[in-house]
Amino acid sequence: MVKDLAPRALPFLCVPEEVGMLKGHECIISRLYATDLAALISNERLFPLPKMHSTAMIWQVLKGLHYLHSLGITHGDIKPGNILLKDSTTFNTRQLGNDGNFYSKEVLQSPEVIICDLDNARLPLQPAHQPAGTPSYRAPEMVDCLDWNEKVDIFAIACVAFELLTRRALYPEQRVTSPNHVEHVEILSPAAKWALIPDPSALDFIQKSTNRMANKRPTAKTLLGHGFFGPLSHLQPGT
Q1: How far is residue 196's CA from residue 149's CA, in Å, rounded to a whole number?
Q2: pLDDT recorded at residue 139
Q3: Which residues belong to the signal peptide in this entry (predicted)?
Q4: Confidence at residue 97, expressed as pLDDT on a 0 to 100 scale
Q5: Which of 125, 150, 159, 200 sits CB 3.0–4.6 Å from 74 for a disulfide?
Q6: What is the reported pLDDT for 120?
Q7: Could you say which residues of the chain have pLDDT below 50?
Q8: Which among 75, 65, 63, 68 has a CA at the least distance from the CA of 6?
């Protein structure tokens, strides 16, 4: 459906190449990609990511979400594991550290990403399903089992942005499944969390997008023009 209705979204979405039968079972064949952002975030050698890489990744996901939302489709499970890196090739650079010495730094060759796993997407006129989303990326309305719309994707991509910039989950407390589990999860105060984001534009982007009130979160189209994206913010969403 996405292929037919939103061809401009295809560069940002992982959609099946073919659907066929194998030994009586329906098979969906998709292109193989290098890795996902969950694996990238766990790779200490690559962090901190260059800011231009972090912003490029978030911008691409927002672009794909903008096209989905324009069709009335909500992804519903945006998280690092559902954002695929097209190429995991790296190279080494020499960078000047704050102590005046040069250090080797491993850097991704390309920050191109693509959104995957549309299996649980909410289609137009379809009721919201519960449970939905993944802990640490679930908007308050999902956590409370209320009706939800495309604004849950905005909340989730802001959580991903925080994680790309800090290597920490913005809402790790959502992963707590029992009182005994609390001691294994480091939960920071809001002030301590925001202090991890020194860039004012990045902080503004994340805070606005994680507003507890869904109707106060910006749309994907609006966020594509946010100053967090630098020169990319001047591009029209449809281009």
Answers
A1: 29
A2: 97
A3: none
A4: 83
A5: 150
A6: 82
A7: none
A8: 68
Residue listed under structure tokens 């006129």: 125
Count Cβ atoms below 10 Å from residue 82 Cβ, excluding itself.
24
Contact 108, 187 (CB under 8 A): no
CATH superfamily entry for domain 34-225: Transferase(Phosphotransferase) domain 1 (1.10.510.10)
Residues 6+ apart with CB under 8 A from 39: none
- For position 184, what pLDDT does the model report? 58
What is the per-residue pLDDT for 52? 94
Please give the pLDDT value at position 193: 94
Task: Give residue for tokens 């890196």.
Answer: 85
Domain edges within the chain? 34-225
Residue 231 exposure: Cα atoms within 13 Å on the Cβ side: 1
